[in-house]
């Protein structure tokens, strides 16, 4: 496999009116990795994906995709994509739809292989407009695979799917990734990034605010979470305990983010307040909130995502 990156953003900027969707974006996607883009609504995830696919052009900077321009990679069938928008095609079967799309590429993946990778072999002769939401999403995945792409881009691929359908989709995606292909996906489900991605990039206001594996991001954020049962005891003192930076009360259970878990636990023990004690490293959700908290959100009316 070539050492050339799958995709490179170099000082990329993109604005919509007064909103800067990409603000000097520098990002290299390595071949064979599964990379998750995280960020709140308005962070610039979908804008970055649109520019990568050649659907939008940067105001300045450069994007390289598989050694050429995005347009060249798309036309050659070297990149596949699942975007957020899409509707079922009426009166065609799954096999017919995937076969039709495959014939538009110069070197397509055999239809049977695309169906197998997407977990659709048993549904090949069913009409597309009669599938469940999770099954329809796997059809969109098979269509994205039809050109036998080296890189696939997934923009919020499991939004609106139930837990079972999400699990089935990621099982299909892992089959594609195991072939040595590159995957770039955006998601609002942090647990998906935690379990599915080799690398996580957090965007905020068009800039990268964190880049690394899930464990690296957690270690860089520092601290731990101490939780215990209040058992009806008061909670006003908790913010004054050693190391505590954040207090959250869920029902009768306290959840403390702390930079000194040993000191926090000792102070709780001195108050005889240890009931159902649990000490755990930060979850990716905690890291994400700490990276994006306090930043101005982009208005929903702006064309930036």
Automatic annotation (TrEMBL):
SUPFAM superfamilies this protein is in? P-loop containing nucleoside triphosphate hydrolases
Q: What domain of life does the native source organism fall in?
A: Bacteria
Q: What range(s) does the ABC transporter domain occupy?
A: 7-230
Its GO biological process annotations read: response to antibiotic
Q: Name one Pfam family in it.
A: ABC_tran
Bilayer topology annotation: Peripheral membrane protein
What are the alphabetically sorted keywords of the record? Antibiotic resistance, ATP-binding, Nucleotide-binding, Transport
* SMART domains in the record: AAA
Bilayer-crossing regions: none
Query: Principal place where this protein is found?
Result: membrane
Question: PROSITE patterns, alphabetically?
Answer: ABC_TRANSPORTER_1 (PS00211), ABC_TRANSPORTER_2 (PS50893)
A single Gene Ontology CC term:
plasma membrane
Q: Which GO terms describe its molecular function?
A: ATP binding; ATP hydrolysis activity
Query: Where is the protein situated, by its record's location annotation?
Result: Cell membrane
Protein name, per record: ABC transporter ATP-binding protein
